[in-house]
TrEMBL record:
<protein>
    <submittedName>
        <fullName>Thioredoxin 1</fullName>
    </submittedName>
</protein>
<dbReference type="InterPro" id="IPR013766">
    <property type="entry name" value="Thioredoxin_domain"/>
</dbReference>
<feature type="domain" description="Thioredoxin">
    <location>
        <begin position="2"/>
        <end position="50"/>
    </location>
</feature>
<dbReference type="Pfam" id="PF00085">
    <property type="entry name" value="Thioredoxin"/>
</dbReference>
<dbReference type="InterPro" id="IPR036249">
    <property type="entry name" value="Thioredoxin-like_sf"/>
</dbReference>
Length: 55
């Protein structure tokens, strides 16, 4: 997990154009393969990661 400040990283904001905040992106080989927008519990994040093949 990483925190990215949109004000400090406008290029990333432009590239990924999240429709809301917070935004969670899962990357594989440098490409965003899945994302979620909104607030989630730790259990929900773990399930999302598991369902995308992240142990």
């Amino acid at each position: 997990m990483a925190y990215l400040d949109n004000d400090q990283n406008p290029a990333a904001l432009k590239k990924y154009n999240p429709s809301g905040i917070p935004a969670f992106y899962l990357f594989k080989n440098g490409q965003a393969v899945s994302y979620r927008i909104g607030y989630y519990t730790a259990a929900q994040i773990k399930e999302w990661l598991r369902s995308n093949g992240v142990a």
